[in-house]
Prior knowledge:
Elements: H1 9-15, H2 19-35, E1 37-39, H3 40-47, H4 51-63, E2 68-70, E3 73-75, H5 85-90, H6 93-104, E4 112-115, H7 119-126, E5 135-138, H8 141-147, E6 154-157, E7 161-162, E8 169-170, H9 172-178, E9 183-188, E10 192-193, E11 198-201, H10 204-215, E12 217-223, E13 235-239, E14 245-248, H11 254-262, E15 266-269
Parallel strand pairs: 4-5, 4-9, 5-6, 9-12, 12-14, 14-15
Antiparallel strand pairs: 1-3, 2-3, 7-8, 10-11, 11-13
Helix pairs in contact: 6-7, 7-8, 9-10
Amino acid sequence: MCLISRERIPRIATLRSTSAASDVYKMQLDRLKNNGKVLVDELVNEFSVTPQTIRTDLNELSKASKLIRVHGGARLIDGRVNVEYQARRQIASSQKVLIGKAGSRIIPDNASLFINIGTTTEAFSDALIDHKGLMVITNNINVASRLRLFKENEVIITGGVVRPSDGGIVGEAAVDFIENFKVDFAIIGSSAIDSDGSLLDFDFREVKVAQAIIKNARHVVLLADSTKFSRSAPVRIGHISQVDTFITDVIADDDFREVCIKSEVELIEVQV
């Protein structure tokens, strides 16, 4: 997506006849595809124009059904396909590290826990380095690979179908395996979070596993950075009211915060 400021139309019009302009246009499209969103402040700096100009451009593109406007920027309309795994790892990476560390601090030694699929749950698993006596059941090959190095803990990996895109294990076999346990904590993620409290994802098979994880844990911990509030996904995992503790970097959505308060969800915000 290439956002054109009115002040620079003659210059951009000239550049578009060159291969350099084509490269810039492609870079914009790739960034939106990989990140799932663009921010007004970033575009202001890149194009050296006023925020009002960028907002006007975004509004016009939204009217043309090219994108969806969200607070502070815009996101892709297509909410059916998730961002690729390597790109997801780079999104809000510093926030994920802090969220993971905050999550690890509420887990005592000698606890049992599920760890679900997700790049934030992987950051959480990295933060368990000083824990001892844990029993970890996971459907995430990346988590199992990390935790196998922590010899003080036991790691159990579910059966099921390995998703080649990110090492997640999904399917009915994974659900059936999880049903054999009742653990102290469930550590889950979510690809998107709606203002009404809905927790959303892209893969129906993954969602079925996540629902089983929630069902079979005494305390559910949701780990998700604030970019999830500006994304959409088609499959419902559940509702924030099913979560005991939600750890994020910041909650800018007042409606969602109110839902959490009414649902008596513990909120932990780790500002970067």
